[in-house]
Known about the structure:
By secondary structure, the chain is of the alpha/beta class. It has a single domain (8-230), classed as 4-Layer Sandwich (Metallo-beta-lactamase, Chain A). Helices cover 29% and strands 24% of the residues. It is built from seven helices and 13 strands. It has helices at 38-47, 65-68, 71-78, 89-92, 103-116, 189-199, 214-230, and strands at 8-12, 17-23, 26-30, 55-59, 81-84, 125-126, 132-133, 139-143, 152-156, 161-165, 169-171, 174-176, 203-206. The longest helix is centred in the last third of the chain and has 17 residues, at 214-230. It is globular, with a radius of gyration of 16 Å. The termini are far apart. The model has no long low-confidence stretch (mean pLDDT 94).
Amino acid sequence: xxxxxxxxxxxxxxxxxxxxxxxxxxxxxxxxxxxxxxxxxxxxxxxxxxxxxxxxxxxxxxxxxxxxxxxxxxxxxxxxxxxxxxxxxxxxxxxxxxxxxxxxxxxxxxxxxxxxxxxxxxxxxxxxxxxxxxxxxxxxxxxxxxxxxxxxxxxxxxxxxxxxxxxxxxxxxxxxxxxxxxxxxxxxxxxxxxxxxxxxxxxxxxxxxxxxxxxxxxxxxxxxxxxxxxxx
Length: 232
């Protein structure tokens, strides 16, 4: 992983990534994947000399199935506390009232829950914008609505690195906002982008990507900002 801390492992999932943040003989996870990731996650933990009990917390960027599909199983395996924005519980419950074109997302989520035999999960540690979590040298919660109302990133000041969730997607040379059919409040993307511009992290790591390079993704973010909002 180019330019990223040695104690960060970005594990490819069926869709997106699970980020493993290591501190000594313990770790926290950012997001959980949705289908077939638990075996690979267990093997990665074993390579690091850890097991399920080493996972002390699960941080959710948001409650969509590809980010929280394994949540209930992981809580049973690890006993870890779940941190997330309260607006995301309705997604974990499968009860978000999708409207308009966004209903496509609702249909796909419903199909995914059926195919994966999804079990609902619970946020037992609600987070707020600006809150600093006591993990990985301190992780600041950055509320970044747009994709969902409670969508959050997590910022490591120590590493000057923002875990950006689905603030944008980056595949090969393509960098773009999440399609609006998957975003239930896209009118709020601009305020979230402005917040990140003000934060000014040197590295950004989105959940959906191919090649892992935090500086490259920061440049990708800037291009999306210029193309979608700065020119208005």
